[in-house]
Amino acid sequence: MPALHNLISNQKLKQQILCNNDLRITVSFYKYFYIDNTHTFRDNLYLKFVELQILGRIYIAHEGINAQISVPSHLYQKMQLCLYRFDKSLNNIHMNIALDNHSKSFWVLRIKVRERIISDGIEENILQISKVGCYLTAQEVNLMLDNPKVIFVDMRNDYEYKIGHFANAIACKANTFREQLSKIIKLLENKKNEIIVTYCTGGIRCEKASAWLIYNGFNNVYQVKGGIIEYVNTARKESIPVRFKGKNFVFDARMSEQVSKDVLSTCSQCGELCDIYTNCLNNLCHLLFIQCINCFNKYKNCCSLFCKEKIKCI
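RESULT FIELD:
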């Protein structure tokens, strides 16, 4: 029987991908639907995707699937057909094509079974995920942005918001989605009859967040269909103004996708305008932080002089 997990080192896989000039498409998708035997589902999908040279990160849970993958361009349509036929609930599932496909995003395929496809901290079975906020098209989002009475809520982590967001959107400051859901109701208290628009990267977080708001008595809840990625892709395709400013943070090797030339954040070390995230080179620290090119050279890709000295000692 073929292996059901990767057998090659990450370093070797990374070298292989970086040396390979084949064009690849980065795509994300998710679907809330019931999966009975999650481990069987996971193993069968792994075997199918390995055949199609797919790389990326996929989470499987009883509540559904959440995937960010990279697929060779010439196999993209085969991947879609494979997924549509794999389970009837995935037939014609919406695919969110990345805004930036010039950089390599993944080196390995990892499919993991989890309790939830996105960790939320909500008690089991209290949400009806079918009762979610009304979807907004790109054109409708722009109309909502022009209405001063509409409240836009960013359902991404604080570090994602820092480098890009819609103007005047409320940041629910937290480093995890679980923390956000515990704070969002208090943040919006006394606004249960206001128009609330939630948004996130690709739709999966604002789908659950809008269901959570409705469960807690909010009456006018909307969400940006397909998140920032679909909004920007659609706006560009339809030649309407793109109102998202800055960069869209992504959880892969690219770390971000540029949407506009606006720089909204500053270097964590010198305070100069900068929106480039990096991880501290000291693996015992590995802090995610914003660093300009001057500080990159000064600190040698480290977050502090302490970590820079630690690297010298290794």
